[in-house]
Each structure stands twice: as structure tokens, then as C-alpha cells.
Write a structure and sequence with these properties.
alpha/beta; seven-stranded mixed beta sheet; 40% helix; elongated
Length: 426
């Protein structure tokens, strides 16, 4: 059994694949296997891979008849891996000569499930040089931690733009949690890394620059907007709710962990909104497109929150947590907090729904204050200028009144400076 399996999916990387393979085969530790997946390349990539396979017995090459994407290639390569540790490298990138030896020594001595390390970006393209100098992540090295603390660490360091080639992973750990890449999407690293970190028992982030990432035009990292970019991020966004539900029993009362999850989720949603704002209206997400209904609904939320305000009408109750989680980036508060507006039967129903989808009610807004509390929540007058700060007014408000009063209440909330107003359909 080799110590490390290096997995390299490759598609049309003829100009770069030799440098990639040479950086792996030239490692200071030699007990490794290299599993390459040719993803139906149309250039000389497959020919070069076979050439290296003939020269070095540590390389095994598998070919796919149809192009299936990087996620499929990584999953296939992992199914053939036998190493104690797994390292996944993109076929246009490289690693430093001493990287695997250093990482293996740390992982074995600390019995790590996974270790993250730093990246050096490089490019031969003059237009991308400024971008290369601005994107490098630097870790503040800490002792070994568990998944909870690992995710909180990422929040504290503000490092959520992580990719799989910046981690080495124990194969036994990957098999234990059954982690796989979602196939057929871009940005597949996003959901994978969240799960990799959050479910670990022992993980460490290293202040060592061992991965060399190439910035080049038209790659996933630097290419222009595509509907597929938004779809990939949205599917990772959905996956974050599934993972949060899986971890809920363990961290139900852990508000610091919940805050880290929310910040990670807002980071994803921020990227989606940025992509949307850079694009024209996309046909891909229109009726009749080949996107599942859940993604189509989430895309409507992207559109709602991509302006300075959100006027969300007839949001389904099941989507409410998603919408609220994507808002209030500037509020400085927990992303799952809301205000209710109204004190009648609709407000009572909304309180029950809020509890069911884990939303925290800050208070109840009314036009005329005739009491101090409603079902235990403080009552706040909409028209009182000093009642709430500008930051507090960025927390979403759920309109909990009959449809006959919605327009009146919405106008008053808007005049008072509330930014996000949501109508819920039960």
C-alpha cells in the first residue's frame, strides 16, 4: 500500500500536464501512486499521460469515453486509489518538491483526518498578474482541532475560498464519512470542503506554502460568467443545509458554530449574487430549462436579494430559512434573526413556522403600540425613530398581517427605513 495516492483528472491541458506530472514524480518522498483520469480530451493530453505511464510504474491512467467533468474524474480516481492518504491535484497546477514528504510527516505524527495548507498563485499572463498577487490565503497556524473548531477558525480567518488541492486527507476518513463530489457541476470544491472540515475529528491548518496554482485565461477560476457557475454554487448552498441538519444534534446549542455556518453560507450566496449582477438575465433558469425546481426557486431568491432591497412576495415557508440566511450581511447579527410585523393570527402562525425552520424572532413591529410584549416577544413601534438602529433595520421583517393590510404596512416599514420585507405564503 503506497503512503499517498495523488489523483489528477485531466481535460485538454496539453500545455500544462507535463509540468504537473513532473512536480509530483519529482517529490522527495517516492512511496506514492499517481492516478490520472483523461476526461475525453480532444488535444494530446491522453497521449502525454500514456507516455508518462509507460515511463513510470507509479502512474496509472484511466480514460473516459465522454467528457463528464472534474467531479466525476475525482470520484473515479478515488475509487482506484489505495494510498493511506489522498491528495487531489488539478492538471494545470503543481506542488512544491518537498510538499508530500512534509505533509505526510505531519499527518502521521498528529494522526490527522485532514490538513490544509497555503497556496502560491502564479501566471504567465500579464493581465492576471495583479489578480495572482491579491488572492493568496495565509493561515495563522494553530494546534490540531476538531471540525467544529476548524469551521470557526475559517470564519475567524475569513478564509472560505478553499479548494481541494489545498488539503491532504486520510483515505480511511473519506471512506468513513462517505464523502463524494457532486457530479455535473462547477465549483464542486465548495460543498466538499465544508463537509471535509466540519465532520473531521482531527484537522490542522498549516502556515506552509506548498500548492502552486496557475492562473490562466478561460479556466473555472478566471473564466467569464456561465449559468453553470450559479448552478454549482446553488447546489453547494443546498448541500450546506443538509450538512447542518446532519450536525444539528451535535451542535444544537452551539451559537458560535452556527454563526460560522451562517457566515460560510453568506459567502457562497455573495458569490452567487456577484455572478448574477455581472450577467444578463439568463435563459438557463427560465421555465422549461433543465434545472431542478429547488435550484430554480433559489435562483429567484438570488434575483430578489441582488438589489439594495428585497421585496419578496409569496415566499414559500420552506424557503424562508434560505432567504433569511442570504440576507442581513451588513447587520452584524446572526443571519437567522428576523422581526415579525403584526400581532394577530397571522403573526401567531408565523411564530410557529419560525420555530420550525430555526429562525430567531428579535421582536414584533406594530403601527400603534398598545402593549409591551406579544407571546413573550418585545413589541416595537414602527414609527418610533429611536426604537431600532440602522443596522437593526437591515434584519429581515416578515409581514404577518392579512393581505388587505400588507400594502399599508409595507409602505410604513419602507418609510421607517426597513430594508428587507418578506411576505410568506403558508
Amino acid at each position: 500500500m503506497p503512503e499517498v495516492s495523488v489523483l489528477i483528472p485531466a481535460y485538454n491541458v496539453e500545455p500544462y500536464i507535463r509540468e504537473c506530472l513532473d512536480s509530483v514524480l519529482g517529490q522527495t518522498m517516492g512511496d506514492l501512486e499517481v492516478i490520472c483520469i483523461d476526461d475525453a480530451s480532444t488535444d494530446r493530453t491522453a497521449e502525454i499521460l500514456r507516455e508518462y505511464e509507460r515511463k513510470d510504474p507509479r502512474i496509472r491512467v484511466y480514460s473516459q469515453e465522454k467528457n463528464k467533468g472534474q467531479s466525476c474524474g475525482r470520484n473515479l480516481a478515488l475509487s482506484h486509489a489505495s494510498g493511506r492518504y489522498i491528495y487531489m491535484l488539478d492538471s494545470d497546477d503543481m506542488i512544491r518538491r518537498e510538499a508530500l514528504e512534509e505533509l505526510l510527516e505531519i499527518c502521521k505524527s498528529q494522526d490527522l483526518d485532514a490538513a490544509g495548507f497555503e497556496t502560491r498563485l502564479f501566471t504567465n499572463d500579464d493581465e492576471l498578474r495583479k489578480e495572482a498577487s491579491a488572492k493568496t490565503i495565509v493561515y495563522e497556524e494553530r494546534p490540531v482541532m476538531n471540525g467544529r473548531d476548524g469551521l470557526i477558525y475559517c470564519m475567524e480567518q475569513d478564509v472560505f475560498s478553499l479548494s481541494v488541492p489545498t488539503f491532504i486527507m486520510k483515505r480511511e476518513y473519506l471512506e468513513k464519512i462517505g464523502i463524494k463530489f457532486v457530479e455535473g457541476i462547477l465549483h464542486e470544491d465548495v460543498g466538499y470542503i465544508f463537509e471535509l472540515i466540519s465532520r473531521a475529528d482531527r484537522i490542522q491548518f498549516l502556515h506552509r506554502e506548498l500548492f502552486l496554482r496557475r492562473l490562466r485565461p478561460h479556466s473555472t477560476m478566471t473564466g467569464g460568467f456561465s449559468d453553470k457557475n450559479i448552478e454549482g454554487y446553488l447546489k453547494s448552498f443546498v448541500r450546506s443545509f443538509e450538512l447542518e441538519s446532519m450536525l444539528k444534534e451535535k451542535y444544537r446549542q452551539d451559537m458560535v458554530f452556527q454563526k460560522a455556518v451562517q457566515k460560510w453560507r453568506r459567502d457562497i450566496f455573495g458569490r452567487i449574487r456577484q455572478l448574477y449582477l455581472q450577467s444578463e438575465e439568463t435563459i438557463y433558469f427560465q421555465e422549461g430549462g433543465h434545472v431542478d425546481e429547488e435550484i430554480r426557486r433559489l435562483f429567484q431568491i438570488v434575483k430578489l436579494t441582488s438589489s439594495g432591497k428585497a421585496r419578496a412576495r409569496d415566499i414559500l415557508g420552506e424557503d424562508l430559512h434560505v432567504l433569511v440566511s442570504s440576507l442581513s450581511e451588513g447587520s452584524g447579527s446572526e443571519a437567522t434573526q428576523i422581526y415579525l410585523c403584526g400581532t394577530g393570527q397571522y403573526a401567531e402562525r408565523m411564530m410557529d413556522l419560525a420555530g420550525a425552520v430555526d429562525l430567531v424572532i428579535r421582536g414584533v413591529l406594530v403601527t400603534e403600540k398598545d402593549r409591551n410584549a406579544f407571546r413573550g416577544f418585545p413589541v416595537i413601534g414602527i414609527d418610533r425613530e429611536a426604537a431600532l438602529s440602522d443596522k437593526e433595520k437591515e434584519i429581515p421583517v416578515i409581514l404577518s398581517v392579512s393581505r388587505y393590510k400588507r400594502e399599508e404596512y409595507e409602505e410604513k416599514l419602507e418609510q421607517a427605513g426597513y430594508r428587507y420585507i418578506i411576505h410568506v405564503r403558508f
